[in-house]
Design goal:
By secondary structure, the protein is α/β, with parallel strands linked by helices. Helices cover 34% and strands 16% of the residues. The protein is built from 14 helices and nine strands. It has a nine-stranded mixed sheet with strand order 1-2-3-5-4-6-7-8-9, sandwiched between helices. It is globular and about 60 Å long. The termini are far apart.
């Protein structure tokens, strides 16, 4: 029974925010038709006005982490969330995009029902979600299940943590497109969300905070550690990254080799398409869709309405309108012909700077989405940047299962940080990283 529960929680974590978003009608079209998705429909739940984009002058004048708008989230006492939460609300706050421009971002804030253990207030987890999609409707805060991870959130609330969760820039507010895997934007949004939680919750929310994330969120959490100074006046206790995305150009080069050798990329095509879209969002002229993607996939990703298809829909859509056997997925010459794209993708790798706190990296050894070897390389790079790094690997555990499998190690690690226990490190003896911070 416990194993089944772990598998369910892991699946929820992996598919965070994907359920119920986008224009799902397109995915059910018959093969060979020319039906394409239209703009994502309004949900009709009364949330719509909250996600209207605010006046940009107002955003520009706001301080990082300043609350621009909030809205209560219904949480009946009889519900799982309501049983553990004293306050639940959607928040809109000021952060920045990858170029440093001020933007409005959304997310949600949850405060525990149980009183804080001491006068410091509830320690805060700034949760960084896994891949959901590109369009506003793919934001976890827009879903009734808050991204499908309610059991995980309730566990942390019951343990006495406040939780804030960034949607990431481009997810949530209307009229935007998410810059997928934009490290600095995602990292700042996670750090600014922590500051927004403090601004909204006052002294009931502690100055002490963690960044915790899975997959894309592991990547974002590592970025948050590098950007932790953005949460001014708060005390960063560390990053926990589960199966973090890294080494994108290497992974995509290996994907080309698989494609050329006839190995199917099924199950990864949507993620690859999102990477191509993320590059295009950053610089439309420099990085057209077909710089990375095959012409057929690029044509589909250039359709604005396709941006409304979330993770639970994009693979099926591509299988209908750009099938792998005829369209491929990647431009086979992208690595050789696009040095600027390679350089930009490499710039998104975590471990470019020293984190403001210790780092815990957790990886399943049977992961087919994030390479265990790539994560080992990332750990070595984090050590080289003088980080204090602990690392856990789990034999036989895949991308879905790494988070529920590693929750006990995460809990121990966070308690040690709260108790000011000196962090352990896997970095080579004698390196600056082993001396702690």
């Amino acid at each position: 029974m416990r194993r089944k529960a772990i598998a369910v929680l892991g699946l929820l974590a992996l598919t965070a925010g994907a359920a119920g978003c986008g224009a799902g009608e397109a995915a059910s079209s018959a093969p060979g038709t020319e039906r394409r998705p239209h703009a994502a429909p309004r949900s009709g739940t009364g949330q719509d006005a909250f996600y209207d984009s605010p006046d940009q002058d107002l955003v520009a004048k706001a301080a990082p982490g300043e609350i621009l708008r909030s809205q209560p989230i219904p949480a009946p006492a009889s519900s799982l969330l309501g049983s553990a939460v004293s306050r639940a609300e959607r928040i809109m706050y000021r952060t920045t995009d990858e170029r440093g421009n001020p933007v409005a971002a959304t997310g949600f804030l949850l405060l525990p029902r149980k009183a804080p253990r001491n006068e410091d207030g509830w320690p805060l987890i700034s949760w960084a979600h896994g891949t959901t999609g590109l369009g506003p409707m793919c934001a976890p805060s827009r879903t009734e299940s808050l991204g499908g991870v309610t059991p995980l959130l309730v566990k942390w609330l019951q343990e006495g943590f406040a939780v804030v969760a960034a949607d990431y820039p481009g997810l949530g507010p209307e009229g935007q497109v998410h810059g997928f895997l934009h490290l600095r934007a995602e990292g700042r949004s996670v750090a600014h969300a922590a500051l927004a939680a403090r601004n909204a919750g006052g002294r009931a929310v502690s100055e002490k905070w963690f960044a915790v994330g899975l997959s894309q969120g592991g990547h974002a959490a590592l970025g948050a550690g590098e950007e932790a100074a953005e949460a001014k006046g708060m005390r960063f206790l560390g990053t926990a990254a589960f199966a973090p995305s890294s080494h994108l150009s290497t992974a995509l080069k290996e994907a080309v080799d698989k494609q050329v050798n006839g190995v199917s990329l099924e199950g990864l095509r949507g993620l690859i398409a999102y990477i191509g879209a993320g590059a295009h969002v950053f610089d439309p002229e420099k990085f057209p869709y077909d710089a990375l993607l095959s012409p057929e996939v690029a044509k589909e990703m250039a359709r604005p309405a396709v941006h409304n298809l979330c993770l639970d829909q994009i693979d099926e859509y591509l299988s209908l309108f750009a099938p792998e056997e005829t369209a491929g997925t990647l431009n086979p010459d992208w690595y050789e012909n696009s040095p600027a794209l390679r350089e930009w993708l490499d710039s998104l790798n975590p471990a470019r700077r020293t984190s403001a706190g210790p780092v815990l990296v957790l990886q399943g050894e049977d992961d087919k989405v994030v390479s265990p070897e790539g994560t080992r390389k990332l750990v070595a790079e984090l050590c080289a940047e003088e980080n204090v790094v602990d690392s856990k690997s789990y034999p036989g555990v895949d991308h879905v299962g790494v988070m529920p499998t590693g929750l006990r190690d995460l809990g121990t690690w966070m308690r040690d940080r709260l108790e000011n226990t000196r962090p352990t490190s896997v970095c080579p003896a004698g390196s600056p990283a082993t001396r702690g911070k």
